[in-house]
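Exercise 7. Given the components listed, write out the predicted structure of the assembled complex. Treat all entries as one system.
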Amino acid sequence: MAIAAQAQSIEEQRKWEGSLDELRGLVSERAMTGETMLLNMGPHHPSTHGVLRLLLELDGEEIVTCLPDIGFLHTGIEKSLEDKSYEKALPLTDRMDYLSPMSNNMAYSCAVEKLLDLDVPERGQIIRVICLELARCASHLVWLGTHAIDMGAMSVLLYAFRERERVLGMFEMLSGQRMMSSYIRPGGVWRDVPAEFLPTIKQFLNDFPAKVDDYEALLTQNPIWKDRAQGVGVVEPDVALAHGMTGPALRGSGVNWDLRKAQPYSGYETYDFNVPLGEHGDVYDRYLIRIQEFRESMKILNQAVARLETVQGPYRSENRKYVPPLRSELGQSMEAVIHHFKLWTYGYDAPDDEIYSAIESPRGEIGCYLHGTGANKPRRVHFKTPSFIHISALPVMSSGYLLADMVAIIGSVDIVLGDCDR
Amino acid sequence: MEIPAARDPVSAARDAFGDAVLHVKQFRGETTLVVEPARLPEVLDFLRVSSGLVYNMLSDVSAVDYYPDDYGDEFDGDESDYRPGRFAVSYHILSMLYNRRLRVKVFAAEEDPRLPTATVVWPAANWLEREIADMMGITFDGHPDQRRLLMPEDWHGHPHRRDYPLGKETVAFSFNEAEIRKHKPFAQN
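Answer.
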């Protein structure tokens, strides 16, 4: 009796699930007849790095195609931004790519500065570069640990998170927050670096290169790692370009494109660093590139820290029509009080026009399309995020490989679902 | 290999398409090319393959809703005010060879907004256009996958429209559950 009732309910459930017709044209015709199997991976699969559901079409163990299903982490950030003044909208951008909030702050701040035509003083630019490169290290460390654990190398995660903790400690020193820092703001950064920051970062820069060597000792020549990574998830350069891939995923295919070099922002053109490139476009090359990027980030950080010691001056624009005055000025200047009140209640007007500005985040190009209204709130803010683009390219990256390779491929493009769904 | 000299995208597009280029705007060093919606895939493909232009990458597709401000009226000469329709979709394309960006913009009408898809030119447009179809309610004719992308499939309305309230979904309690369920025909059981 109980079994019959259960059978009926499954029957009903099937009816509710709908037919395969919805997927006609998206999966191959063989799936319609049941020759190939449709299998759900996620949204609670640990290696999908968040809540990503993949509908896989499998021929035996080989992936025919996959249909990524996103939106589980959609938080309506772009819609919420339309109801906030430009300055107050900033903390929301932290929550998109939660592994490198500084990059999001930077993408948004650059867009606002471009719309307002606002300049950033030199010291502010140097502090920004330091933050961005530290964020790149922190983000790549999470990628390294989780990518390795996905492929069965358990211990790398512990070492990677040990170093990441030091970077987050420095972010806390700067902004009071480990992760959601909201430190980079339109016009510069929130405040100057505290006195204890310089010795801390110098100690970190001294220790970190040896740690990167340790990670490499664990993985780079490891035969199991090479077996899992080499020749897997190969993307040809033209395919990568057609699908709009950016960042290490594009450079892994050998395309020399880094916005820090090509369209420099925040003074990146004055730093000496290289852009590592891959040859084969496979998982292994994307791994090597990110490892090299640790070292290149170290180079940039060393130069930036040296400059920070010599370059003094304001760390944030002093254009009081857009940037709130210092707290210390409030007791002495009536004008400062007026600006403070105006900027923290109403905000400022931005032109009724549109701009697009992009920066190189650890994952690729974060673009911000900003359309003002002529008043204090934007008409539309749209973030072009690298994870979104890379997840949409997963089908071409994975078809023809084995189910177990899917995990390696997802790990190698370094997706963050908060970044994807926004 | 000799790299052909860069050409001005505006004059190149005007030469090739004539009246299909409706308007050109410069703002903060960015060029915007407003084109006729029906010719959009052609224009994008021309910009992608022509020598001296080679906009080989689609960076972003984003939509904007001009509600409730003025749109659809006569163009009065104000550069930023060229708005023949309620919705606009911007294709941000990038030429790696010449290291420059260009925005190609099309407008769509308020009633039943429809545009041709750019998926035939760039596979990257697939999801970016799906997102706009989902959030802004613009139909892309010929798009290979017309399902919703971010919102649940039983969702009503298009959240990024400016007349869509910035509110919250009503929490279902026992007293109002039936009323809420009534509006969600696909979320039963």
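Discussion: The two ends of chain B are 65 Å apart (CA to CA). Helices of chain B lie at 9-17, 40-49, 125-136, 177-182.
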